[in-house]
UniProtKB/TrEMBL annotation:
Residues 13-193 form the Pyruvate/ketoisovalerate oxidoreductase catalytic domain. GO terms for molecular function: indolepyruvate ferredoxin oxidoreductase activity. This is Indolepyruvate ferredoxin oxidoreductase beta subunit. InterPro entries: IorB_Oxidoreductase, Pyrv/ketoisovalerate_OxRed_cat, Pyrv_flavodox_OxRed_cen. Keywords: Oxidoreductase, Pyruvate. It is an enzyme of class 1 (oxidoreductase). Its EC number is 1.2.7.8. Pfam families: POR.
Length: 195
């Protein structure tokens, strides 16, 4: 049986979902594994939905796109976006979610209330293993709100939801991120892992 890990990363534009998928893909390639990625960004802009599909295996992968019920891990940069992608999670899968919300534009336009706690409740009730991370507090601790993506990768790695060590993800950060942001991102990775 071949090693296989299907990961879905869901957030909103500007949160770094695409970079997160690139870091996981780089860690996989550095480990000699096959990897395929795809982003579903459509009309995404700052605040719009962004979903990254990451498939990792020790054999060839036909399609980069996950099918419903196939994700081992769902990383939600925003709880409502994680709820939106629940149909992709396999039974018994793992969800790593940020506790903070970003209200969708549709809530502002229709003047409807958006409850992050209700979204977290849906995640708690879905039967998956759930890890909730206080992303804002951890980002404030390391000095940058822009490091949420790497904080959540650290939490997912520590929860055993990625099959990559922190050292492998650190190497991916060093190879992928601009040098002036490497130290910040490594601090973010370890802060997420401690959480």
């Amino acid at each position: 049986m071949s090693l296989k890990r299907n990961i879905m990363i869901a957030g909103v534009g500007g949160q770094g979902t695409v970079l997160a998928s690139k870091l996981v893909a780089r860690a996989a390639m550095d480990a000699g594994l096959a990897v395929r990625t795809s982003e579903t960004i459509g009309m995404a802009q700052r605040g719009g939905s962004v979903v990254s599909h990451v498939r990792v295996s020790d054999s060839a992968i036909a399609s980069p796109v996950l099918t419903p019920g196939s994700a081992d891990t769902l990383i939600g940069f925003e709880p409502g976006e994680a709820v939106r992608c629940l149909r992709y999670l396999r039974p018994g899968g793992c969800i790593v979610s940020n506790a903070q919300t970003v209200a969708p534009a549709s809530a502002a336009l229709t003047r409807t209330e958006y409850s992050g706690e209700a979204m977290l409740g849906r995640l708690r009730d879905c039967g998956a293993r759930l890890v909730v991370v206080d992303g804002d507090a951890l980002c404030a601790e390391i000095g940058s709100l822009k490091a949420l993506n790497v904080v959540l990768l650290g939490a997912a790695a520590a929860a055993g939801a990625l099959d990559f060590t922190l050292e492998q993800l650190e190497a991916a950060i060093r190879a992928t991120v601009r040098p002036k942001f490497v130290d910040l991102n490594i601090r973010a990775l370890h802060a997420g892992a401690r959480a």
